[in-house]
Design brief:
Oligomer: single chain
Strand content: under 5%
Order of helices and strands: HHHHHHEEHHHHHHHEEEHHHHHHHHHHH
Largest sheet: 3 strands, mixed
Strand order of the largest sheet: 3-5-4
Shape: globular
């Protein structure tokens, strides 16, 4: 019987990370191992993977423990210990292991269909390694943990009571515009209280990331990250994509805003109007109802999806409760030793909470279908395809939470509006990061000003922000990616284009679309992104032609739900 089943923990924690001597001995054994044949090399790779999986699962579990309870100093210290003590050791030995692999005379005999991505990744990692960056990486993780601690502790004064930040976020979907506005302003006020401290964190992050890039031989952190992420497209492709979306998607976004403005009966479209505000009923009241509802949606879509969700629920691999002291937002993390996935979400009852859970379950189902739980092998353009794809495959099942026909159509339209927003919103973040890291000596005030400029160019194009410029300009502090996952934004928009192609197939033949989803999600990460997309029945293409066509399709789908 596995440790996971009998232990109160949801992850394996068999490796004592406090015993540094024993850990280094195991790593040193791998470094010193003599490799005599390609078969021997494969055995060595399996031994390395098993050790690294155990270490990574323990560290991931400690991170999740902290995110579930950011006010717990013991959990915080364990998470920080992993990054300040264990991570430098891993980085040091990883270089030695990469050198051993890349210089081994039998590496060339390993077939690319199984080891191609590993060969490329280890060679690139070896080329980019810089010992001076090890303490900078440690400091980067410490700053990320500090940000998480601040965000997890954030509360809002609401009607004389102290409420979790996520509780008031859910009120942005309230049908009453006065409540939405009060909630929006209350959230802005809560952010303003922590803004100076978060500015300090970001100031330091920008400088140390710039130093990391210079140490590695790059002119700026943006160029460095493109190599680290091994992107299959260029920086210029990103700028061309920005322009295509601005030319073809933003006008559609503005037209949709005019429709909502008319339905709301308002003359101007304010920031608190750009939310899921047309849904008048609360979709659920308890976490149990949320899980029951999403399970029912999955049952109607594909029984294997539902079985996986039920399994995770039974094994304690879901934390969906909204509570104070818990990190804000949602994510899925792989547990590579036990070969499981953990889904984390912190949203109060709302449409957003339903979609967030479906999105993260898309990630979880993908990793179970794929069987590769080693996150370093993943490419975000692929992983996000299956999370966005799951959202769109379940659009027609939203009547589980919204049985009223009018609300059901509104919920579907809201899901499609989210898709349109995902072609726009992430580009605000992407171009903002391009600017931040190619202008590393900017001030906090300049940073706020640029974020406002990019928001108005993309996501907030149809919104009247007059008198609220400061609040909008500083709202970037809500985005966890800037702190923990830099340059993880454009992938959302690129993969949304692919997911919408999958929706087109679904509209013609649901079973075929689901079959494509499962086939693509099962594809080995050693395939190129283009090949994985093709196995999903779609194309990896974010040219202006595809952007324009996708925008037209999406708009037609929204029109049908009026």
């Amino acid at each position: 019987m596995s440790r996971l089943r009998t232990s109160p923990k949801y992850y394996l924690d068999d490796i004592d990370l406090k015993d540094i001597k024993a850990l280094e001995m195991r790593l040193q054994t791998l470094v010193q191992c003599e490799l005599k044949s390609s078969a021997n090399l494969e055995v060595w790779l399996d031994q390395e993977r098993m050790l690294m999986d155990g270490i990574q699962e323990a560290m991931t579990g400690h991170k999740i423990d902290f995110y579930r309870d950011t006010g717990n100093t013991h959990k915080r210290d364990m998470h920080l210990y992993d990054h300040s003590v264990i991570q430098p050791i891993l980085l040091k030995y990883q270089r030695e292991l990469d050198k051993k692999f890349c210089s081994c005379p039998f590496t060339g005999e390993l077939h690319d269909s199984r080891y191609g991505a590993m060969k490329r990744g280890r060679l690139a990692r070896l080329q980019q390694f810089c010992e001076a960056n090890i303490p900078l990486t440690v400091r980067e993780k410490q700053l990320g943990a500090k940000y998480s601690e601040i965000r997890g502790a954030m509360t809002v004064d609401w009607e004389g009571k102290t409420k979790p930040y996520s509780f008031v976020q859910a009120l942005l979907e309230h049908p009453d515009p006065t409540i939405r506005e009060r909630a929006w302003r209350a959230l802005a006020e809560a952010r303003s209280k922590v803004k100076p401290e978060i500015d300090d964190i970001m100031n330091e992050l920008v400088q140390l990331r710039h130093e990391m890039a210079l140490n590695a031989g790059y002119g700026n952190y943006r160029d460095y990250m493109f190599q680290v992420k091994d992107r299959e497209y260029s920086i210029q492709d990103c700028y061309d994509f920005h322009k295509s979306v601005e030319r073809h998607i933003v006008p559609a976004w503005n037209r949709l805003a005019d429709v909502f403005r008319s339905e709301l009966g308002v003359n101007t479209y304010r920031p608190w109007d750009s939310t899921a505000k047309m849904l008048h009923s609360i979709p659920y009241t308890t976490v149990t109802e949320l899980m029951d509802g999403v399970h029912a949606m999955l049952v109607k879509t594909d029984t294997s999806f539902a079985k996986r969700f039920a399994f995770m629920r039974e094994r304690g691999l879901l934390d969906l409760e909204s509570r104070q002291g818990k990190q804000i937002g949602g994510f899925m993390d792989p547990l590579p030793a036990s070969k499981h996935a953990f889904v984390f979400s912190n949203f109060s009852p709302s449409f957003t909470a339903i979609i967030a859970l479906i999105h993260e379950m898309g990630h979880a189902i993908h990793v179970y279908l794929n069987g590769d739980f080693q996150e370093q092998n993943w490419r975000d353009e692929v992983t996000e395809l299956y999370s966005h794809g799951m959202e769109l495959l379940l659009l027609d099942r939203l009547d589980t939470f919204y049985p009223n026909e009018r609300e059901y159509k509104s919920a579907q339209r809201e899901g499609l509006r989210r898709s349109l927003g995902l072609l726009i919103g992430p580009l605000t973040r992407d171009i903002f990061e391009h600017w931040m890291y190619t202008h590393p000596n900017h001030t906090a005030q300049e940073r706020d000003g640029k974020f406002l400029e990019f928001c108005k160019r993309f996501r907030l194009s149809p919104v009247d922000t007059s008198g609220l410029e400061s609040e909008v300009a500083t709202s970037w502090v809500d985005t966890i990616h800037f702190f923990l996952y830099p340059f993880y934004a454009i992938e959302y928009s690129i993969s949304e284009l692919g997911a919408l192609q999958l929706l087109e197939i679904y509209r013609a033949d649901p079973r075929r679309a689901i079959s494509f989803y499962k086939q693509g999600a099962s594809t080995n990460f050693n395939y190129s992104i283009s090949d994985i997309y093709l196995r999903t029945g779609i194309k990896f293409d974010f040219s202006e032609r595809v952007v324009s066509r996708t925008g037209e399709f999406l708009q037609s789908q929204i029109e049908q739900l009026k």
